[in-house]
Specification:
This protein has 214 residues and is mainly β. The chain has a single domain (20-213), classed as Jelly Rolls (Sandwich). The protein is built from one helix and 15 strands, in the order H-E-E-E-E-E-E-E-E-E-E-E-E-E-E-E. The protein has one helix at residues 2-18; strands at 23-27, 35-36, 43-50, 53-60, 69-73, 81-88, 97-105, 108-114, 125-130, 146-147, 157-164, 167-172, 180-182, 193-198, 203-213.
Length: 214
């Protein structure tokens, strides 16, 4: 019996030791050469200030309801972990700003985005995977893909997202209880980078991306 207990304790210890330690990746300072950031005839970016804070500003030149764009660090491999960042919407219509994770490329990733114009309603938070050239948001209009929270119309707000397996948990502005939970993440999008997301908005402001990988 004593030998069995020792063996069990040894197994537990070895399994615990084998678990990878969390790794923190701090992208508060963005080096453009280390990132994939859109700059085309319809998209642009700039490093500037918004409401007195240094920020990456993603800019869309042409309105397109099927548009979605990402900016993310190269070489980051994220499957499970914690994502934190600050975002704001400086525009005057169509406020869609957020984050993408498990990014394989510009058209294969998972996303959580926020609608400041829909603050206080079930439409304030939106989850959806992207696996097509066009951003097919119309396939994810059911309430189960959305969540209610309070957002400032044009001010900064903090986002914390925990991803583990098929489960997504979202906290806004340091809330201690989740603002949104979704438990059926797309299994075909397994891992990749993490970054900022801009929908059909003329501009989005982003800062302080910190990613902890498990």
């Amino acid at each position: 019996m004593k030998i069995l207990c020792i063996l069990l304790m040894s197994l537990i210890f070895n399994n615990a030791y084998a678990q990878p330690k969390p790794t923190v990746h701090n992208y508060s300072v963005i080096k453009p050469t280390d990132w994939t950031i859109p700059r085309t005839d319809t998209l642009d970016y700039a490093f500037g200030q918004y409401k007195g804070q240094n920020a990456l500003l993603l800019k869309r030149k042409i309105d397109n309801y099927k548009s979605a764009s990402t900016a993310y660090p190269k070489g980051l491999e994220f499957k499970d972990g914690i994502i934190e960042l600050d975002a704001a919407w400086p525009g005057d219509k169509n406020g869609f700003v957020g984050l993408a994770f498990r990014i394989k490329d510009d058209h294969h990733y998972e996303s959580v985005y926020f609608r400041p114009e829909s603050s206080g309603t079930i439409n304030a938070i939106q989850y959806m995977p992207e696996k097509k050239y066009d951003f097919n948001w119309w396939d994810y209009e059911a309430d189960k893909y959305q969540g209610k929270t309070t957002l400032p119309l044009h001010g900064w707000f903090h986002i914390k997202v925990i991803v583990k397996g098929g489960k997504l948990t979202v906290f806004v502005n340091h809330h201690t209880t989740p603002d949104f939970i979704y438990s059926l993440l797309d299994s075909s999008v397994k891992s990749g980078s993490v970054g900022f997301w801009l929908g059909n908005s003329t501009i989005g402001a982003y800062k302080n991306l910190v990613v902890t990988t498990f």
